[in-house]
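pasting for the record
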Amino acid sequence: MPNTSVSLIMGLVLATLIHKRPWWNIYNRRRLWGLIFVLPALTFFALFAFYPMANAFYISLTEYRLISPPVFSGLENYAHLLEDQRFRISLGNTFLFVAGSAVPIWVISLALALLLAGRFWGRNFVRTLYFVPVIISGVVVSMVWRVLYHPYGPVNALLGPLLGFAPNWLTQRNLAPWAIVAMNVWQSVGFYMLIFIAGLQNIPEVFYDAAKVDGANRRQLLRHITLPLLKPTTLFVMVISLIDGFQSFTYQYMLTKGGPSDATNVIALYIYQNAFQYLNMGYASALSLVMFVIIMVLTLVQLRIVRSEEGLYA
């Protein structure tokens, strides 16, 4: 069947070339070549993105336990999802993780960008130091922080005398989520710092020069020039960091497996548990589609906001 489709397309193209129809002008030739160059990317997207999503939607409508063929069950998985307390807990934990990570990431990465955007000796070396955690695997980072969070590890060696006791960071329900948030912030700020630096470098220097002529100080430059002109970059960082937070899985899986008592069980980890521990692929697919919808809504909000800002910062 694929060979027949390819032959049909090639036949239509050759027939058009032979008969030299009126529409075959320079403009349409360029469009055809553009389509030819885009076709591999479209094919890749169809095979590895669209088809898996369509198949996941179909599986979400079935009772599929891996050990037996899928049986169509309609919206039963989605009905169960609305009644599933563990889903509500994992969704709440996900929002807590996203909200707890997002604000520190935004503030710290912006502050670092403002400090490191200027010219000074060793600037590139310092930037590299902050970016190194970004290129380290999340698995490796989790293993390192497991050692740091050990009751007799470096974190308690520093904070124990101040707190008066040595907390069990990964086994106490009220501390484990925030311990993972701190680790996520540490690994993420370097990436968003570079994005902010790129945004700062796109601000024309003439704006600062004109403001300095008018007697503006550093605080006024930051408030009236830097932050307003950095708004598109800030919106981009905010949305990308939120989307990344909703997809968090590695930290929770490596450090706590969702515990203690589901305190760190985020939605991505709950999907994994249903798919590969409980072998309930139908329900796992329904959960994954819910997460996809949440991320898609965030993406659409980003596009809408960015487009509304394009006219102001073009």
